[in-house]
From TrEMBL, chains A, B:
Protein's recorded name: GNAT family N-acetyltransferase
Statement: the UniProt record of this protein carries the keyword Transmembrane helix: no
Pfam families: Acetyltransf_1
Keyword line: Acyltransferase, Transferase
Domain N-acetyltransferase residues, every copy: 40-175
PANTHER family xref list: ACYL-COA N-ACYLTRANSFERASE (PTHR43626), GCN5-RELATED N-ACETYLTRANSFERASE 2, CHLOROPLASTIC (PTHR43626:SF4)
Organism encoding this protein: Anabaena sphaerica FACHB-251
GO cellular component: cytoplasm
Length: 175, 175
């Protein structure tokens, strides 16, 4: 499939053997050379199945959004990062994040999601590290996001500071 | 000049006669039909003289940034809004703002500046109204910004809410 061809060209596999957090040997016998082992792969490919992405967002309870708009948002994001569980020749979308940017100074990260089955295993952190690495490689110096209250501490551990020097994140609502 | 030609096609003049805030008759005799009257014009034209923009940013004390990067940021912003004082056939850049966006859901406003000579006259508010009108016309529902402490109240009067529902603006710094 065209998807796989282009996808692998812009994807990175992490931790193909050593890092326990990113490997799952529970399904395979380590002594068996035919054992199927899972790996976690990151990609910046934009050609994501929108229904698969919607399913992922459903799983964390997000409100549904028109796929037409999601498609447009992906097209016009500066960075689109996805995280996949790969088992044999099957892959499953288990994480997603994207960023808008002026391609020069600022980037803002949106829509960070990790499937509940894969949370609390360090994968959210791995996804964010991947995003930050990609943004830094583009010389973006100011990386920002708007964090829901329950994930503020998570982002803090990643090096994000809330309200630095009193700078306030603000949202506009029509008066 | 090409600039003027393209510029007027995408610009909007506000308050050509009635609104005091946007007209300055002090230089002209109202009884004299040759009187020169100032008007304030808004534009979304991107072809802005980078040196003129730098001068405007200098006037408010911002740190200088490489013009190469400023150019790139303007090119990749979703919206570039400028405010001009027009007197006869002369124009002067007196305000600027831009926004990054995914063209679908979110926009983030950056680099809002009004020349000190033109502050406290409602022009910052007029510029922001222009920006918000443009973003709304593109069906962007979530308009955000990061406000320095001394302008939080200004943005509050425009309908911006800090930390709505506990959502925190966060900035990343490498650990």
């Amino acid at each position: 499939m065209g998807f796989w061809k282009t996808w692998f060209s812009s994807s990175e596999s992490v931790a193909t053997n050593k890092t326990t957090a990113f490997e799952d040997h529970t399904r395979g016998d380590k002594g068996n050379s035919n054992a199927v082992s899972d790996s976690i792969v990151f990609s910046t490919e934009r050609d994501i199945d929108l229904y698969e992405l919607e399913e992922l967002c459903d799983a964390v309870g997000w409100s549904r959004r028109p796929l037409r708009k999601v498609k447009k948002a992906i097209e016009h994001s500066f960075l689109v990062a996805s995280m996949w569980q790969v088992r044999g020749n099957k892959r499953r979308l288990i994480g997603f994040a994207r960023a808008t940017s002026d391609h020069a100074f600022n980037a803002t990260i949106w829509d960070v999601v990790v499937h509940p089955d894969f949370q609390s295993q360090g994968l959210g952190k791995a996804l964010m590290k991947y995003v930050l690495k990609k943004l830094r490689s583009e010389e973006i110096s100011n990386v920002t996001l708007f964090a829901d209250p329950h994930v503020v501490d998570f982002y803090r551990t990643m090096g994000f500071i809330p309200d630095p020097e009193g700078i306030k994140g603000m949202f506009w609502y029509p008066q």
